[in-house]
Design a protein that fits this description.
The protein is of the alpha+beta class and 177 residues long. A hairpin with a 4-residue loop joins strand 7 and strand 8. The longest helix is centred in the middle third of the chain and has 13 residues. The chain starts with 13 loop residues before the first strand and ends with a strand. 36% of the residues are buried.
């Protein structure tokens, strides 16, 4: 969920994520050790939007609008065949990534006050594996993860999660059509 290792979570933050349980066998060990979101309870996922609105603003009207937005997008299949890097971050690249970009674009079009990563980074769909400034560690993680590639997943929902101050908790899911 975080775009870099220096990001910290704030109580009441929310995020919209696509869970990818199919990734867990390949990435769980590395995520548990080197991804703050995993240690805080978020399963393997591709982020649609982080941060979203503060939790007190996510009311029934917001949920209804999200349900309408996501319900207007079709479910899709995605493959994870390759790793990628941002500075200090190893990730799995979803292919295709265009459906994730469309989901993010639709939410941001409705809530422009919630740009991806607070406007700090250009959104780039990815599944975070490890965050570290130790490139040797990231090389080791990448070599290990490649043994579990490729795998496919069916994307049929987006989850709303919220940070309680100690962990991320699932709030609701929105089905794609």
């Amino acid at each position: 969920m975080t775009a870099d290792a220096s990001a910290s979570f704030v109580s009441g933050q929310t995020a919209l994520v696509v869970p990818v349980p199919e990734a867990e066998p390949a990435v769980r060990v590395w995520r548990d050790r080197f991804d703050p979101a995993a240690r805080a309870g978020v399963p393997a996922h591709v982020t649609v939007l982080f941060p979203f609105l503060p939790e007190p603003l996510v009311d029934d009207g917001t949920r209804a609008a999200l349900d309408e937005i996501f319900g207007s997008h079709p479910s899709f299949d995605v493959r994870f065949e390759d790793c990628g890097r941002f500075p200090g971050l190893l990730y799995l690249a979803p292919a295709p990534d265009a459906p994730f970009r469309r989901l993010t674009g639709a939410v941001v079009a409705r809530w422009p006050e919630a740009p991806p990563y607070g406007g700090k980074y250009e959104p780039h769909p990815h599944l975070t594996v490890a965050q570290s400034h130790d490139n040797t560690l990231l090389d080791e993680a990448e070599a290990d993860i490649r043994t579990g590639l490729p795998f496919s997943a069916r994307v049929s929902k987006v989850d709303l999660v919220a940070y309680t101050g100690t962990d991320w908790q699932h709030r609701t899911s929105f089905a794609l059509s």
